[in-house]
Structure formats: C-alpha cells, structure tokens
Write a structure and sequence with these properties.
The protein is of the alpha+beta class. 51% of the residues lie in helices and 17% in strands. It is built from seven helices and seven strands, in the order H-H-H-E-E-H-H-E-H-E-E-E-H-E. Strand 5 and strand 6 (192-201) form a beta hairpin. It is elongated and about 90 Å long.
Length: 230
C-alpha cells in the first residue's frame, strides 16, 4: 500500500492548512476553540471522507458488486457529530450569549474538511477564503454598521428617598438610552428599593459616564451595569 498517494496526501495537507488558518483567526481573537481544535475538526472530516470515498481499498476481498460507496452518509454523520462539539463552545453569561461565531467556524471547518476529503479542492479553497473573509474582513464592516446596543441595569436606592420612575429614566435618557419596562422591587427586610430595566441605544455605551452619574447620587446604595455581548 502506498502511504504517500497524492490523492491522500493533498487533501490531508489542505485540511491541515485550512483548519490552521481559520483556527489562527479564532485563536488571535482569544476564542475557546483555536488552531489545534480547528485543525483536528477539519482533519477528522477529511480522513473520514477519504475512508468513505476509497471504501474499496479497505474492503479487500469483498466482491465489488456488493459494495455500496455512499460518501453522503458519511458526510451527514460528520456534520451531525461536529454539532455536539459546536454546542460545547456556546455558553450564556448573564444575558449575553457567547461562542456562536466560534461554533459556526467549527461547523464550516468540518464542511471544508468534507470537501477536501472528496477532492472538491476548488470549492473547498473558495470556501476557505470566503470563511476567512467573513471572520476577519467582516469585522471591519461590522464595527461600522448601525446597531442597537443593550445594557441591563440594576440600581438600589435607600428606602427613605428613592427616585421616581421618571427620574430614573431621565438619567439614562441623557445618555441616549431608551428603556423597556422598569421593574420595582422591595429588598428583603425593607433595606431599600431596587429598580431594574434593560436599556437600548444606537450610540456606543458610555459606561464610565453612567457610573460617575450614579456615584454622584447619594441615594444610590449599589448598582450594576451589564452590557450585552451577542
């Protein structure tokens, strides 16, 4: 058996390269799945597809008329399996959901491995380049697109002098933030009043200025600002 057949070596090397460059972008951004993870995902997909495509090679002695080569079934299995891996990098932190882009990059890396494994090199290379453009290049555009930004706010006031809801909203309106419903809550033991709401705005959130405004209010006992990252 020739271990260095070009129809084995080229897809494997291409899978390592594709997984490496995509993984580097994720590693550079400090994401959970980096170079090694992406290389292994792409390489695994390629190896399994090579095994499916060249099924005749490892079923020596089996009559060819009973062998049913069906790489599509293997591809379904690969993409289903990588879904469990993708689920492991998605997590919720407060009201923010993180890891969605990394999960998507693992998914498409697996798909690229499938393409390299069945020797659709042209399509795989185009897909690799397109993936890098989306992950790296689109960040430049993404930062300039108008979007609503959300921040979850919780402010505790002394029970003796809580502000009205209008005063509470006016504070954040000065920073271009609009509220959803405001929740009023009496703290256990009557220690104070807590007002919570989710605010949204189109401009960049000035957390420092909001913090200074809250610190300047003697009625404020405690507060928490939690910008959402999605």
């Amino acid at each position: 058996m020739d271990l260095f057949r070009h129809d084995y070596v080229i897809p494997i090397l291409a899978a390592i390269l594709a997984g490496g460059v995509i993984g580097f972008e994720r590693e550079y951004r400090g994401r959970a799945a980096g170079i090694r993870t992406h290389i292994l995902v792409c390489l695994t997909s390629t190896l399994l597809m090579l095994a499916a495509v060249y099924q005749v090679d490892w079923m020596v002695g089996t009559p060819h008329d009973v062998i049913r080569v069906d790489p599509v079934r293997m591809a379904h299995g690969v993409l289903t399996g990588v879904g469990f891996l993708c689920g492991g990098v998605i997590f919720r932190e407060g009201f923010s959901v993180r890891g969605l882009t990394t999960a998507a990059s693992l998914w498409i890396t697996s798909a690229l491995g499938v393409l390299y494994g069945i020797s659709l090199h042209g399509l795989a290379v185009i897909g690799t380049v397109a993936t890098l453009v989306v992950l790296a290049g689109m960040r430049l555009i993404d930062g300039r697109l108008p979007r609503q930004r959300h921040v979850d706010v919780s402010v505790r006031y002394a029970r003796e002098a809580p502000p009205s809801e209008a005063e509470f909203l006016a504070l954040f309106a000065a920073f271009g933030l609009e509220p959803d419903a405001v929740v009023h809550k009496m703290l256990p033991g009557g220690e104070g009043i807590e007002l919570t709401s989710t605010f949204r705005g189109t401009s960049a959130l000035n957390s420092q200025a909001i913090t200074e405004a809250l610190l300047a209010d003697p009625r404020v006992v405690a507060f928490e600002l939690s910008p959402r990252h999605e």
